[in-house]
Amino acid sequence: MARKTKEEAQKTRDQILDAAEHVFYRNGFTITTMAEIAEAAQLSRGAVYGHYKGKLEVATAMAERVIQAASPFQHQPALNALCNLKEYCLQEIRSYIEPSSIQRVLFFLYIGIDDSPELLHLRFAWEKKRIAQIDCLLKQAIAQGELSADVDFDLISLYCQSIIEGVFSIIYFGSLSESQRWQRAEQLCEYGLQRLSMPLF
Which of 23, 82, 95, 180 is most buried per CB count within 10 Å? Predict the structure, then answer.
């Protein structure tokens, strides 16, 4: 039998990871089996094991692939830093809610994994990237005079993270209609970020 070309091997790996994305999203890590991944990929178990030693290796490769391909935040020069921060918060919330590869992988990393260090590392890396983007925009807001230079930077960074997580919970778990949810999300983000320029009590 002729050996597979690199292109054929990559196509098979993509087929496995595409299938794994849906299986892990549906079942979580613990109860998912390699046999289920193989069935979803319409491949034999031997074909899957030919590329990955086990489901942890599949899950890690699946998550890494999607996270690396995620679109970075596009800063809009026409907007000030706090408006860009609002747009970033909305982009981040959408990534957790709107059906897509990144949504399925993030759901898996936050809800569907056990304490595997490899998977926890990927989740922490995503969070670190989010914090870095928030901090970059906050520093721009300070440089542009939108925020006071003596503001408690660590506190407002945590506050912005809480806006993302809080609005996500309201939109995802709440009872808002499809026509209302993103209008409310934008209003909540805008209202929350306005608080940054107000003095503390």
Answer: 23
